[in-house]
Design brief:
94 residues, two-stranded antiparallel ribbon, 27% helix
Length: 94
């Protein structure tokens, strides 16, 4: 099956209905794209285990999660922000 579509200025194409139905894709479904040894693109529905992420590894937020060693409160962190440049003179926490 070969179907031709036009790429938008945002780099997007619509996955044809026949392919969406074949793969069981619905709005919000994750899809994985892979380039095979012949240079062809393979598209598949990403599994519940995050198949699309598995190829790349964890994203930067997942890698950083749980690694902070500083135990500051929100109030202490907010005091570090340069509010003098934003027109805000002070913050009150309740």
């Amino acid at each position: 099956m070969s179907i031709t579509h036009t790429l938008t200025s945002k780099g997007q194409v619509t996955i044809p209905k026949r392919i969406r139905e074949t793969l069981g894709l619905r709005p919000g479904s994750q899809v994985a794209f892979e380039v095979n040894d012949r240079g062809a693109i393979e598209i598949r529905k990403a599994g519940k285990d995050g198949g699309a992420k598995r190829a790349r590894g964890k994203d930067r937020f997942e890698r950083a999660r749980g690694r902070a060693t500083v135990k500051w409160s929100t109030e202490e962190l907010m005091r570090l922000l340069p509010f003098q440049h934003s027109g805000i003179r002070s913050l009150e926490f309740t």
